[in-house]
Amino acid sequence: MELVKNAKQSDSRLAKKLGCAQSTVFRIRKQLEKDNVIWGYSTIVDWTKLGYSMYVITIRTKPPTKEGTGLVVKGIIAENAKKFGVSLLDIMMLFGEFEWCLLVAAPKEQNVHNYINFLRERYHKFIEGRPLHAKVMFNCVQQGQKNPTLDDLEKLGLETTSSK
After folding, report:
1. Which residues have CB under 8 Å from 5's CB, separation 6+?
2. Measuring CA to CA, how many Å separate 105 from each of 35, 38, 141, 144, 151?
3. CB burial of residue 115 (10 Å; 0-12, 13-18, 19+)
4. In terms of CB atoms within 10 Å, which of 2, 25, 98, 139 comes out highest?
5. Nearest residue to 25 (alpha-carbon basis) of 42, 146, 38
6. pLDDT of 77-131, one tens digit each?
7. Boundaries of CATH 3.30.70.920 in the chain?
8. pLDDT tens, 57-85?
9. What is the chain written as a DSSP string?
10. Which of 56, 63, 107 is nearest to 85 (CA)?
């Protein structure tokens, strides 16, 4: 979990925290990368400070087929949402009312509408109904990290645990 808290820390610093040799940390990290336990390392971005809003898109699909699932996943990724001004942050396959959940960032809601319309037109054989979307009003925790401006929720008139 130390690595999740700060992926930038060196193996030697992590070894000190864990009380083991730097070579042990290096070996374990490399094995976790090889086994795809660690997919990669990323930066946590406050999209609002870059002029973007975040949106959640939920998609219901028709009864799944191997072809349909593969096409939709590859299509969502390969069609590169960026041509619609949308940054694709996460894609999750769900079990429940919806089969897919996408987390995206875009400068305008119209970009998200255009992207959704493209997905509907391109994958009409597999998508049931109109995908739904909602704007994220405030991101409290991202990739396990508490938002450093969590107290700003008070400005929105919402109560946080830390403000009680």
Report:
1. 144, 145
2. 30, 24, 16, 19, 22
3. buried
4. 25
5. 38
6. 656 688 899 998 888 888 888 888 999 999 999 999 999 998 888 888 888 899 9
7. 47-135
8. 999 888 777 777 777 677 666 566 888 99
9. -HHHH-TTS-HHHHHHHHTS-HHHHHHHHHHHHHTTSS--------GGGGT-EEEEEEE-BSS--HHHHHHHHHHHHHT-GGGGT-EEEEEEE-SSS-SEEEEEEESSHHHHHHHHHHHHHHTTTTB-SPPEEEE-S--SEETTEE-TTGGGGGGGT---GGG-
10. 107
Q: Which residue has the tokens 């999750």?
A: 92
Per-residue CA distances from 121 to 41, 85, 99, 130, 160 (Å): 34, 18, 18, 10, 41
Paired tokens of 127:
């998508």
Q: Which amino acid is at 70?
A: G
Token match 């450093």: residue? 148
Top-tier CATH class for 47-135: alpha beta
